[in-house]
Design brief:
Elements: E1 5-13, E2 21-27, H1 32-43, E3 51-55, E4 58-61, E5 73-74, H2 80-85, E6 91-96, E7 102-113, E8 122-127, H3 137-149, H4 156-163, H5 175-189
Helix pairs in contact: 1-5, 3-4
Length: about 200
């Protein structure tokens, strides 16, 4: 299989209510560091924290020499196709922000021929808006939402400062923004045409 195939996958942000998910398609041959960038664009994360993609027991990220040999494999030197070859099952993991611990389950829905008239990555569907960055992970965010909804809660004022009085956990994602970000990524990764002399 080559560039002529794409992987359809469903990304779900674990342990967050209301549900946050994205169904996307990416080239089978996409490098894993670029897949991370696609996930960031799909969920509107700000790419300001450490991350790791885990296939089975094998983790990929951007190695930090301070970790020695215990860190992840280099995501810049592996493709999605290569990572999927050694994986059992249809789900892999994406962790963003080691402090807050935003875990995502990524389920492979299928590998299908690419549409030559379509640019990739491609958004199929989107549900929910992800929590604000640095909001304490799923559990911290849930507690803050609870405090925000109850004016008598002892931490209501703190929740207002953290999330703002206009925060709506039921807000729908900005589809146009995701499409625009995906279009920019597709343009950036498109093969450059050689200039004729």
């Amino acid at each position: 299989m080559s560039n002529d195939f794409v992987v359809r996958m469903m990304i779900t942000l674990d342990d967050v209510t209301p549900a946050v998910s994205r169904m996307i398609e990416v080239p089978l041959t996409i490098r894993l560091d670029r897949l991370h960038t696609v996930f960031q664009a799909a969920l509107a994360w700000t790419d300001s924290h450490l991350w790791e993609l885990t296939f089975g027991r094998t983790g990929f990220g951007i190695p930090d020499l301070s970790y020695g040999f215990d860190g992840p494999l280099n995501a810049r030197k592996a493709t999605l196709a290569e990572a999927l070859e050694g994986m059992r099952g249809k789900t892999f993991r994406y962790l963003y922000d080691f402090g807050d611990g935003w875990e995502h389950s990524v389920r492979i829905e299928g590998i299908v021929p690419a549409d030559l008239q379509t640019s990739y990555p491609r958004l199929i569907e989107a549900t929910g808006t992800r929590p604000p960055e640095d909001s304490g992970g799923p559990w911290g965010y849930a507690e803050t939402l609870q405090a925000l909804a109850d004016p008598t809660h002892e931490y209501h004022k703190d929740a207002l400062e953290a999330l703002g009085d206009d925060h709506d956990p039921h807000a729908q994602p900005d589809i146009d923004l995701i499409h625009a970000r995906f279009a920019a990524l597709a343009k950036k990764s498109a093969p450059r045409q050689r200039k004729t002399k």
